[in-house]
Amino acid sequence: MPPLQLPALDPAAVPEVRGSGYPEPFRSRMGDRVKHRLGEACGLTKFGVNLVTLGPGGQSALRHWHTLEDEFVYVLAGEIVLVSEVGEQTLGAGMCAGYPAAKRDAHHFVNRGTAPAVYLEVGNRIDGDNAFYPDDDLLWCNAGDGEYAAHKDGRRYPD
User: Which helix (H) or strand (E) holds 40?
Assistant: First the structure.
C-alpha cells in the first residue's frame, strides 16, 4: 500500500510530543504522557485533535477549566479516571466526556491503572482563552498575542 498523502495520514507518522508546557513544579507531575497532534498534522487551524497515550501514573493536565475553549475526550483503549467537580469517575474504551467553555467544572484525567490508556482530545482554538487551575498556583493566560503561564497574582512564570 502506498504511503498516505494529506488529507489522510497515519497517526503513527505524526511526531510524538512528550512532557508539558507547564512550568515547574507542575511539568514533572504529568508523568508519562505522549501526544500526537493530529489536527496540526492535517493543517487544521480552528480546532485541535490530539491522540494521547497516558502511561500508568500519568495525568492529562492539572485540574483546570477554560474561559472560551470547549473540550471533548473519547477513550479508545484502557481506563482513565476523570476527576472533576462531581468527584471521580472511571472511563473505559468507548466512553467520552465534554466540557463546555466557561463552565467552572475543573477537570483532568489520571491513569491509575497498570496499562497505558489511549484517547482522543478535541478542543477549539480561540485567541484570548484563559485556563484556571483551582488546585494550583497557576493561570494559563492568552491575551491574543501568545500564551503564558502566570501565578494567580498575575506574575509570570519564567519561560
Answer: helix 38-41
